[in-house]
Amino acid sequence: MDYAALYQKKLTSAAEAVKAVKSGDWVDYGWCTNHPYTLDKALAARQNELKDVKVRGGVTMWMPEICKAEDAGEHFTWNSWHCSGIDRKIISKGMGYFIPMRYSELPRFYRDGNATVDVAMIQVTPMDKHGNFSYALACSHLADMLDAAKTVIVEVNENLPWVYGLNGCEINIKDVDMVVEGENPPVAQLGAGGAPTEVDTAVANLVVPEIPNGACLQLGIGGMPNTIGSMIAQSDLKDLSVHTEMYVDGFVDMAMAGKITGKHKQLDKGRQVFAFAAGTQKLYDYMDRNPEVMGAPVDYTNDVFVISQIDNFISINNAIDCDLYGQVNAESAGIKHISGTGGQLDFAMGAYLSKGGKSFICMSSTVTGKDGTVKSRIVPTLTQGSICTDPRSCTHYIVTEYGMVNLKGLSTWQRAEALIGIAHPDFREQLIADAEKMHIWRRSNK
Questions:
Q1: Which of 49, 210, 327, 426 shows its CA 20 to 30 Å from the CA of 149?
Q2: What is the C-alpha separation between 118 and 19, in angstroms, rounded?
Q3: Does residue 149 contact residue 279 with C-beta atoms inside 8 Å?
Q4: How far apart are CA 16 and CA 43, in angstroms?
C-alpha cells in the first residue's frame, strides 16, 4: 500500500475538516495532551453555526477555544472524564459537567455504545513509513474511542514524542478519514511543582521505608507522590518496576538514578507500563522512542486482576480527606468537583491483592482555606456531597505527617482511634468527642 499517497489524499485543512461536525453531535477530543489544538480553533470559529454540540475530554491541559467565548455554552457543552483545574473552570462557567466513572471501565463505554461518537479529533505524531500515527502520551482509551467514531480526524503535531505501546497505541492512515497538519504547538507541560514541603517530606519518610527492593510502583498525581518518587530516586532501593495509570516525572528521576530495571516484574518484564503521561519536557524527551516505556489501554493498566498478578505492588495516591470509618474522598469538596475516581480504587484493591502489595493514601493532616481557616483532613464523616472514592472496606494504609496506620482488620472503634492518632493534635479532642457521638469510641480508648 502506498501510505504516502493515501496520506495526501486524506490531507485537508482544519477549517474543512471541522465541517464534519453538525449541531447535536457528540464530538470527542480524546485525553490530556492529545486534545486537538488547531482543530479546536477551527471548530470554535464555527460557533455561531452550531447548537447543542456535546464535547468530551479529560485531564484538560489548556482552555479549549470552544469554551472561551462568553456565550460558548449556548453552542457547546463540555463533558469531562476526569477534571483538571481547567475542567473546573469550564464547569464553573456553567457549560461543563463531570462524567462519573472508574477509569478502567472507560474503553468499554465506547465498545458497548454507552458513549457514542459522531466525530473524533485528536493530536497524533507524524506518520511513520508503515502508515501509523502514534497516540504518543495517551494510549488510554483512544483505540476504542476511534473505533466507535463515525468520523476520525487526526491533527499531526511534530513535537509529540513517539511512544511505543503494548497494544492500542497507534492508528493507521487507512483507518483515518481526514488528516490535518496542525500548528505544532509545544506539548502541554504539567509542572513538577515547587520544592517539597516539610509535610511532603515527613509523609515520604514514612512511606519509603515500607517499599522493598524489587517492588512495582504506581504513583498518583500531586506533590506528595512526586516527593516520594524523588526520595526513592535518592534511596538505596534497587530493581524497581513500574505499572501505573499516569506516568510522571518522578519515574524519570528513578530511572535516571538506575533504580528501575523491571527484572523482577511478573508481567511485561523490563517494561514501564502506563496509560497516559504528562509532565515536563524532561519526561517527554525520556519517553520518545524509549523501548523501556510502554503505553497500554487503561483497561489493562488499571485492571485489578492484572495489578494483583505483580508481586510487591506499591500504590501511592493522595486524597482530599478521610473519615473516621476509613472512607476516602479524593474527588470533591462537598458538591464542588475537584478531580475524579480515576484509578485510585482499582490500584488500592489490586495492590492489596498482590503478594506483598501495599496501598498508601497520603495527605497532610490539615488544609487551609482561602479565608485562612485551618481544617482537619481527618473528619468524623465525609462532608455532605463529598464522594467516597475508596470505601472503608478497601482502604489499606492512611498516612499523614503524624504517622501511618493500617486499617485492614480493624473494627470501627480501632479505626477511629488509629485515625485520630495521625490527625493534627489541635483537632484530636474534637474528633474524640465526635467519635463518642457516633458510638465508635470505647471507654478504654487512649
A1: 49
A2: 12
A3: no
A4: 10
Based on its alpha-carbon atoms, the radius of gyration of the chain, rounded to whole angstroms, reads 23
Answer for the pair 33, 136: CB distance below 8 angstroms, yes or no: yes
In sequence order, the β-bridge partners of residue 321 are: 329
Q: What distances in angstroms separate CA 334 from CA 99, 385, 388, one per listed residue?
A: 17, 4, 11
**317-342 tens-digit pLDDT:** 999 999 999 999 999 888 888 898 99
Task: Read off the pLDDT of residues 278-305 as tens digits, 9 standing for 90 and up.
Answer: 999 999 999 999 999 999 999 999 999 9
Q: What is 160-220 written as a DSSP string? A: SPP--BSSS-EEEGGG-SEEEE---PPPP-----SSPPHHHHHHHHHHGGGPPTT-EEEE-
pLDDT in tens, 11-30: 999 999 999 999 999 999 99
Among the listed residues 130, 236, 133, 125, the one whose alpha carbon sits nearest the alpha carbon of residue 184: 125
Residue 323 cell numbers, joined = 473519615
Span 128-139, pLDDT tens digits: 999 999 999 999
The residue count for the chain: 446
* 8-state DSSP, 126: P
Which pLDDT value is given to residue 446?
A: 63
Q: What letter would DSSP give residue 369? A: -
Contact assessment for residue 17 and residue 121, using Cβ atoms and an 8 Å cutoff:
yes
H or E stretch including 337? strand 336-337
For 392-437, the pLDDT digits (tens) are 999 999 999 999 999 999 999 999 999 999 999 999 999 999 999 9
pTM of the predicted model, to two decimals? 0.95
Buried b (16+ CB within 10 A) or exposed e, 392-413: bebbbbbbbbbbbbebeebebb
Catalytic residues, by residue number, are 245
Q: How far apart are CA 319 and CA 376, in angstroms?
A: 13
Residue matched to cell numbers 474534637: 430
User: Of the candidates 143, 58, 147, which has an alpha carbon nearest to the alpha carbon of residue 103?
Assistant: 58
**SS3 of the chain: helix, strand, coil, percent, to 5:** 30, 25, 45
